[in-house]
TrEMBL record:
One GO cellular component term: extracellular space
GO molecular function: metalloendopeptidase activity; zinc ion binding
UniProt cross-references to InterPro entries, sorted A to Z: FTP_domain, Fungal_virulence_M36, Peptidase_M36, Peptidase_M4/M1_CTD_sf
EC code: 3.4.24.-
A Pfam entry, by short name: Peptidase_M36
Source domain of life: Eukaryota
UniProt region (Disordered), positions on chain: 785-810
Keyword Hydrolase assigned: yes
Family as reported in the entry's similarity comment: Belongs to the peptidase M36 family.
Protein name as it appears in the record: Extracellular metalloproteinase
Subcellular location(s) of the protein: Secreted
GO process annotations (BP): proteolysis
Length: 810
């Protein structure tokens, strides 16, 4: 067989995104806040040959269709990939199973992640995800390269950037728009300006950031493909938000190249198929860069398929970004793709430590912001499944603050009285730096009563920052409380250790650990923003929350639950899509937009109640009734007219605008399920029993054997959305994500909601006849709304009753 794997890893384990890309320029009185626009790159080639197949009629193999439920799913997956390769791909193509493959405990679906290998090197965007249940391949996504194999260590031609054609289109479109008037800095909220200027603003943002990449001077390029330093500097020159750093790289190119400290990393196991390197002294990087040689697919001249290009793949952590990028290994070292990360056996439940349960004075779960309710006293949520030892305990061996410290204790857990635990480390970050361990966080003492005052008073601009910082204890306690509840909620819906959740210690349940969320409150690097960086499983997620200078007193984004939930949902969708060890699946276009949309949808669902209401995002923090999106989320098409076709508008080329459309579609679909199944006032499943089993209560259906099925429409929709993320392919389109949700219902309920789901998708143009052609690296293209549902869901015409015959009088 032509594949490589570490069987023990696979069997044992049977994983950034940005809320706003622009920051408002701070007031002269806001000392310590950096005055700049946060830069974020995200683009890559289209893959016209990529597919997601979720119908048995579409899953075609070379005569092999396993149907034996007793067959090892790993064997099924291996045979399936072998079969696909033999029938569709060059003989020299091989593959390896990634070690982050796993089986979902609730649904019984095994999710396998496969990476293509050619000439012994990874194809960075040659991905296959295979979903198996009861011995059957129920769906798969595939972007394997299927063209001719190039000679080793050669490039057929200089790779052009996939952006050029699209950038020409952006620049041409800009000429048809007037330039927007100068807007006061405090109107620039989360990457938006007044609605009349949205389209021009977005186009200018693309033209100014992504379309103005600086080419590397010919004299600096290297003819030696083994020397990746020029390629890395070419990327850093474009990635840095500081023009002085970019200028210095150009002016002192050789000095920077020679100063780099390159260290090879050899791997004993076959999990890594090629040598990797770590690189120190890289300008504007905050930690050593990871580098390895690989292939990337680029569109051919005809634009109907891809060809392979040899690249250096880099992982670069910067102050405000965490990039995964592919840069051509040959001159002129063009940037081919870039994603900004800024988604075992079950162990017995360990005994929780004998410590007091913490309490917090907070805006409780469901109260979105200070205008929606008052603060109340809430208790630490001991969930025996999601957080077995509570929120304030972490093993000594997994505590980053004790790294290198010689311990003199036999205790396993360290119990803390601060906002420091297994799921999240929460603290202030007034300096806006990456360091967090020694930052300030409130200490509630032995009582663990996090009861802190929050009563900000109106001040003039000069005292506004001090006034906000005076309530840092309440702010950090709120951020810690909300983040832990989001962790626990998502865990109960299936975002667990093997699927890549964020925990320092995984309780022997599999997955990579030491990756709790680093949650920074009142981040000092800017205003009016929030962001979340999601590296692969086993590396800490990092969330930055900001103050908003949109009102006096300043408003604190940490206190608006919708913003916090949106950010944490980036970690959810990035780790679940394409597997926990692959953070490059939601980087741009429709897939990047859905990363934003899932966050909006889940935040809106969590705050909703039994009495229907429309909701806007970020209203309180931004001090705008309609929030920071173009429209509130609403069933009323006059309030929110978004359809699939809306993505064609120039102002919808950015991921946030794309995400609005996806979130609106999900909102409409969800309301259809609620109409059918009713509404649960409690989104949390029942508390587990002492033995770890989960009672059905009024939450789960009792007429279903097998997977636990939420009985109400809103809880069922959350479950289907998360299960759909696990099923869908890397770099999914709207169509792929739609089909994955529909298949998730097939797995969970046997397809009972097939037509209800299609009704919702078709209502906003995502029916079976929806189409798109000529997509760009940002998701542009020409779309056609489709309002047609599958034949099985079309209502039959009511036959007309025959008219009674007229009788003639005799």
């Amino acid at each position: 067989m032509r594949y490589f794997f570490t069987a023990s890893l696979v069997v044992a384990s049977l994983a950034g995104h940005i809320y706003g890309h622009r920051q408002a320029a701070p007031s002269p009185h806001d000392e310590g806040r950096v005055s700049y626009q946060r830069k974020s790159l995200g683009f890559g080639p289209e893959h016209p040959h990529a597919v997601f197949r979720s119908s048995q009629y579409q899953i075609k193999t070379n005569g092999f269709t396993p149907g034996d439920a007793s067959m090892d799913p790993f064997e099924v997956a291996g045979r399936f990939v072998e079969d696909v390769l033999m029938s569709e791909y060059p003989l020299d193509s091989a593959f390896r199973f990634r070690s982050d493959s796993y089986t979902d405990k609730n649904t019984g679906v095994s999710h396998f992640y496969v990476r293509q290998l050619i000439n012994g090197l990874e194809v960075t965007d040659g991905d296959m995800n295979i979903n198996i249940k009861d011995g059957m391949v129920i769906s798969y996504g595939n972007s394997f390269y299927n063209g001719p194999i190039p000679d080793p260590f050669t490039n057929p031609s200089a790779a052009s950037s996939p952006l050029q054609k699209s950038c020409d289109q952006v620049i041409q479109t800009l000429k048809t728009f007037r330039r927007p008037p100068v807007v006061d800095s405090e109107q620039v909220i989360m990457g938006q300006v007044p609605a009349s200027d949205d389209s021009t603003h977005m186009l200018e943002h693309i033209a100014e950031s992504t379309c103005s990449l600086i080419p590397l001077p010919e004299s600096f390029a290297s003819d030696d493909m083994a020397d990746f330093r020029p390629a890395l500097l070419a990327f850093m020159m474009n990635a840095t938000p500081d023009p002085k750093v970019a200028s210095d790289i150009l002016s002192n190119f050789e000095s920077h190249k020679e100063a780099m400290e390159v260290t090879p990393t050899n791997h004993f196991t076959p999990g890594e198929t090629t040598m990797t390197f770590t690189v120190g002294n890289v300008p504007d990087a905050v930690s050593p860069v990871k580098a390895k040689l690989a292939y990337t697919q680029i569109l051919n001249e005809a634009g109907d398929n891809t060809e392979l290009h040899l690249v250096w793949k880099f992982e670069v952590e910067m102050q405000d970004n965490w990039y995964e990028t592919s840069v051509s290994a040959s001159a002129p070292h063009n940037i081919i793709s870039v994603v900004d990360w800024a988604s075992d056996a079950y162990a017995p439940i360990p005994k929780k430590p004998q410590v007091p349960v913490a309490s917090y004075s907070v805006f409780k779960w469901g109260v979105n912001d200070p205008e929606c309710g008052n603060r109340t006293l809430e208790k630490e949520n001991f969930d025996a499944l999601a957080s077995p030892v509570g929120w304030h305990s972490v093993p000594f061996s997994n505590d980053p603050s004790l790294k290198g410290v010689r311990l003199r204790t036999k205790d396993f857990y360290r119990n803390t009285s601060t906002t420091w635990g297994n799921n999240v480390f929460a603290q202030e970050n007034w300096e806006g730096q990456n360091a967090f361990i020694n930052n300030y966080r409130p200490d509630a003492g032995d009582s663990k009563e996090f009861h802190f005052e929050y009563d900000p008073q109106e001040t003039d601009k000069s005292g506004a920052l001090d006034e906000a910082q005076a309530y840092i204890n309440a702010t950090v306690a709120q951020l810690f409380y909300t983040t832990n509840l989001v962790h626990d909620l998502y865990y109960r819906y299936g975002f667990d250790e093997v699927s890549g959740n964020f925990q320092q210690y995984n309780f022997g349940r599999g997955g990579a650990e030491n990756d709790a969320v680093i949650a920074n409150a009142q981040d000092g690097s800017g205003f009016n923003n929030a962001n979340f960086m999601t590296p692969p499983d086993g590396q800490n997620g990092r969330m930055r929350m900001y103050l908003w200078n949109t009102a006096l007193p300043y408003r604190d984004g940490d206190l608006e639950a919708g913003i916090v939930i949106h950010e944490l949902s980036h970690g959810l969708s990035t780790r679940l899509t394409g597997g926990p060890a692959n953070s490059g699946c939601l980087g741009w276009g429709e897939s990047g937009g859905m990363g934003e949309g899932w966050g909006d949808f889940l935040a809106t669902t969590i705050r909703s109640s039994k009495v229907y209401s429309d909701f806007a995002m970020g209203s309180w923090a931004a001090n705008r009734a309609n929030g920071i999106r173009n429209y509130p989320y609403s069933l009323d098409e006059e309030i929110n007219p978004s359809t699939y076709k809306t993505l064609d508008k120039p102002g919808y080329w950015g991921v946030h605008a794309v995400g609005e459309v996806w979130a609106e579609i999900l909102w409409v679909v969800s309301q259809g399920l609620i109409k059918k199944h009713g509404f649960s006032t409690e989104l949390f499943p029942p508390t587990p029993l002492e033995d770890g089993t989960v009672p059905t209560g009024d939450f789960y259906r009792t007429d279903k054997k097998g997977p636990l099925v939420p009985k109400h429409g809103n809880s069922l929709m959350v479950q289907l959305v998360l299960n759909g993320m696990k099923l869908q392919a890397c770099r999914p389109s709207f169509f792929d994500a739609r089909d994955a949700i529909i298949q998730a219902d097939q797995v969970l309920t046997g397809g009972e909601n097939f037509c209800t789901l299609w009704d919702g998708f078709a209502a906003r143009g995502l029916g079976v006849d929806a189409t798109v052609v000529n997509r760009t690296p940002w998701g542009g293209g020409i779309r056609t709304n489709g309002y047609t549902k599958p034949i099985a869901c079309e209502e039959p015409e009511t036959p007309k009753e025959p008219k009674s015959p007229k009788h003639k009088a005799l």
